[in-house]
Every structure is written in structure tokens, then in C-alpha cells.
């Protein structure tokens, strides 16, 4: 089964409020198809030189020259936007979980003489654990999506895009086992 199909199924099955927080795999894939067309056409050769170092992707080709195609610049911009979306969501959920965990610890300490209250707190701890597992799976799934695009870039052997892709992708917090 293709990755996008698997991702679509998992997005539909997950928590409704998380659906728009997943990697926009289709957008990245569309941009890659503009960079590396499959129909035998040559990739666009129009080069741009930008005044904005982050927009011109001066680290993309390792030479610092800043000469890259508009399609590569757009790809890196989309990738950066997606990484920011993913990282923000992970950080927000982790912060919420830490706060909830502290509240549950406090409630458990206060309810040590009430079996019913301890049972309620215990169920909420199990729910929190389940949410953390979902968050870990979310992170892994999005990492896989970026890996799928990374593999395509590698297969095309386009060093400028590949370098941009890896430097942006591996700097992301959500890729560094943030849920462990």
C-alpha cells in the first residue's frame, strides 16, 4: 500500500482534532513532482537568486552560492512550514501532558483514602498514557512521511534539494524522540 493511502486511513481513524496537524504529504509530493517530473521532461532550469538567505536556500548546495530553482525554494518553504506545524503541535501536546500528569499526581495524593476517586484518577492516567502513545505514533508517522520524500530526493540524486531537505528535516524537534 502506498504511503499516502496508509496515511489517509490513519488520519481518518485518529482523533478528530488532530486531522489537520498531520504532515501535508500531498503538498510536498506535488512540489517534488515539479522539481523532478516523471514524464521524461527535464527539471526546470530557471535559477533564482534571492536577497533573503533562508528563502534562497544558500545552504542547499553546500557552496553558499544561493543559486537554486524556484521549485526548490518553494519545496524548502513548504517543508519548513510543515516542520513548524508538526513541532508546534508536539510541543503543545507535551506541555499539556506534563500539566495533566502533575494534576493527576496531586489528585491521587489527595484521594489516597477514597477508593472510588483513586479508580477515577487511575482511569485518567491510563487515558493520558494512551494519548502519549498516540503522540509518539503521530511523530513516527510524520517522520516516515518525511522519510518517504527524502528517499525520493535521494533517488533523484539532486544534491542541492537533498541537502536542503536533510538540513531542514533533521533539525526538527519532533524527529528527535521527543515523546520518549
Automatic annotation (TrEMBL):
Protein name according to UniProt: SPX domain-containing protein
Key words of the record: Coiled coil
UniProt entry tagged with the keyword NADP: no
Residue numbers spanned by region Disordered: 36-63
GO biological process, one term: cellular response to phosphate starvation
SPX domain ranges (all copies): 1-167
Superkingdom assignment: Eukaryota
Coiled coil (residue ranges): 76-121
Ranges annotated as biased composition (Basic and acidic residues): 36-50
Keyword Transmembrane helix tagged: no
